[in-house]
From TrEMBL:
It holds the Pfam family Bmp. This is BMP family ABC transporter substrate-binding protein. Signal peptide: none annotated. One of its GO terms (cellular component) is plasma membrane.
């Protein structure tokens, strides 16, 4: 486990986190999900110097993508509140070990725990037994007495960039890399293709899922397969830039995710769905310290936590102009996810005149017409 002191100084404990977690916290975790009587601690003001904030990351902070962006948020918290202490663990597994890690955060005295990816029952079981601790789960779905969720409404930025991709593709084939066939991947693939089809109806999208968020070798192999199949634009929702390198080597174009990645291959770069959790994390900690934090679900919206990165140098001016015109409409409240929309089996999913809400997009488990390889 890595912690920061009052001045951001990094310390590394020599204790085995997973070994301790099973036994630690016997006096802190309530049995059978029972809740303590009275006002929970997170409803009372907390001195900055007494605060401990914990983060459980799905990958390494050096991944160049998802976890790196969250780590920037951790650093923003340290700058905003230099007297508090932060704890983080990288590469938290999706297993019972995750539960032990979250329990250990509580045992270490954390008053607020963030999981920077979805951990479902692994974090909920711990939050149920630690009612005095505030929990927030990124890409989660649960709201309980002390657990909320947060996520980025990335589908709008994907739609904008999809317009540029639809105008730039020569073959009419977009390749898409995802980790798993889960709602966030469906939302990203669907939005990208719908944006592309809004200016080029013949465009299709071929997807490959690699069963990992961070696996550069598998991502490289999948990107190569997509290129071999005629996809001249590669995009996806991965935690690292492997497929941008494939695009650069093959003379293709790429749309990235998490952060600006122009430096990894400017000749191939179209743009990126760029995330910024800094203000969100600072505001959550500020609310905790003030005793005003509340468990709820929250989207970070276009221009406020998620947006497109700058356009790459090879993006045609007209493609950028059309895409940015849509971005302006979206910022004004326009919703492009309106029927009729059919799925990739021909079924009408969204009737004419009906708009999909952010929650409906967030929970989508189907692919739009023109998407293949994502079931």
């Amino acid at each position: 486990m890595t912690v920061s002191g009052p001045r951001g100084r990094l310390l590394t404990t020599r204790r085995n986190l997973l070994g301790m977690a099973g036994a630690a916290g016997s006096g802190l975790l309530l049995p059978n999900g029972a809740r303590a009587a009275g006002t929970p601690a997170w409803r009372r003001p907390l001195a900055e110097a007494d605060a401990v904030i914990a983060f459980g990351h799905t990958g390494p902070v050096t991944d160049g993508g998802w976890t790196m962006v969250h780590d920037r948020g951790v650093q923003a918290v340290r700058r905003a509140f230099p007297k508090l202490r932060t704890i983080y663990v990288e590469s938290v597994p999706y297993s019972a070990d995750a539960t032990r890690i979250f329990r250990q955060f509580v045992a270490e005295g954390a008053q607020m725990v963030f999981s920077t990816s979805e951990y479902g029952d692994f974090i909920k079981d711990v939050s149920d037994r630690a009612p005095d601790v505030a929990f927030m789960e990124c890409d989660g779905t649960n709201v309980t007495g002390n657990l909320g969720w947060y996520y980025v409404a990335h589908w709008y930025a994907s739609y904008v960039i999809g317009i540029a991709a639809g105008l730039m593709t020569r073959t009419g084939k977009i390749g898409f890399l995802g980790a798993f066939p889960i709602p966030s991947v469906y939302a990203s693939a669907n939005a990208t293709l719908l944006g592309a089809q809004s200016v080029n109806p013949a465009v299709t999208l071929q997807s490959i899922t690699i069963n990992a968020w961070f696996d550069p070798q598998a991502a490289t192999q999948a990107a190569t397969a997509l290129a071999d199949n005629g996809c001249d634009i590669l995009c996806g929702i991965m935690d690292e830039p492997a497929y941008l390198r494939v695009a650069l080597q093959r003379g293709l174009k790429a749309v990235m995710w998490n952060t600006g990645m122009l430096d990894f291959g400017p000749e191939a770069y179209i743009s990126s769905v760029a995330l910024d959790f800094n203000d969100f994390y600072v505001s959550q900690v500020r609310d905790l310290l003030a005793g005003t934090w509340q468990p709820q679900g929250r989207f970070l919206t276009l221009g406020h936590g998620v947006d497109r990165d700058g356009w790459g140098p090879t993006v045609p001016v007209e493609a950028a102009r059309q895409a940015d015109a849509m971005r302006t409409r979206l910022l004004a409240g326009y919703n492009p996810f309106r029927g009729p929309i059919h799925d990739n089996h021909g079924r009408l999913r969204v009737p004419a005149g009906v708009e999909l809400s952010d929650l409906e997009i967030y929970h989508s488990d189907w692919a739009v017409a023109g998407v293949s390889g994502l079931e």
